């Protein structure tokens, strides 16, 4: 009974003139609100440009449009954190040697996320 109802419904849907390819090919085109689409695109582009200006101003690069595309000048100061080496002791422990502001440090890490930081020359506690 259910199978015959489903087959009848499928036959009605496929035989419907509203869904046939011939009626779709001869129909009129849908009215596209071009003004609304162009307005929405202009709004999105304007918001994106305003966000760029706001971010550049927030980061300290003030100026007109040419300042947007110039690379920002980097100060010539050396980096504060420099990794000088890394050594894997086993599958579970890795040592990292680095300096912070010219002071040497050792970090031991494990897969569980445990990190031990020790200043070089100090006793581990």
UniProtKB/TrEMBL annotation:
Residues 1-20 form the signal peptide. It comes from the Bacteria. The chain crosses the membrane at residues 37-55. Keywords: Membrane, Signal, Transmembrane, Transmembrane helix. This is Uncharacterized protein. It comes from Brevundimonas faecalis.
